[in-house]
Amino acid sequence: MNRIFTQGDLGLFLSFRNSERAIRAQCSEHVIMQGHDALYTPIKRATGPVREAIEQATTVAVRNAARRTVSENFDTNTALSMRCRHQRALAELRNLLENGAKERALQNALVESGLLALNCRVIQEVTMNPTDNYRGMRMDLVLDPMTDEPVQIVELKRGSLLLLARRGKPTERLAQQLRRAVEQLEGYGNRVDSDAATTIDLERHGLRFEKPELRLIAGRRLSDAHEYHLLSRVETDASDSNLQLQIYTWDGFLAELERIVD
β-strand 164-165 against 173-174: which pairing, if any? Predict the structure, then answer.
């Protein structure tokens, strides 16, 4: 696939993002990751050497042209394609996960990678001040899409966060850590959707919340459809309460970003 990002033209990227969003609305992460493993990964592996050769040749050509026209001090990093930079950022995020990074390190790396800013305005640490009815709250990330999609409230938890508890009865159930994270995120959604004072206060960021989408990114990939079904039940319960909630593992979330930017 040719390079799809050009300055001022993100249309193709946005179409990919919209497709991923539509698929995720209809399918669990388990189904999507099965497709990722069976289709995307083998194709990427087969085409990888050719793409890398093209990338290297392009990098050399751009570097040489820049040196001739600008200076010998040309920063070779600027010659890297957008795709190459994004792949490096994804590799860094995966390395952080494997090494047990905390939420703050993951959040900073994700924002600094620029992966989210390709199709959204990204605002970190959005504070909701305390009122008579609510305590103070702080949202990790708020994404304001460039399209007509709703604002997204994103809560990040570490990769080691326990999603399922495997002791007691029933032997498989949602872990208390995950329940607390979901309650925290739903609290944000309920407040911005119902508290007029908070809504007005958030307009200082240029944000208008109307049925915001809630994204929880936590833990690592689960092993089978039954385990993912437990997460899907939480999403369904939120929908029944008029909230739009989706739970991603870090593996599923980074796989989605990889498909979009590749």
Answer: antiparallel
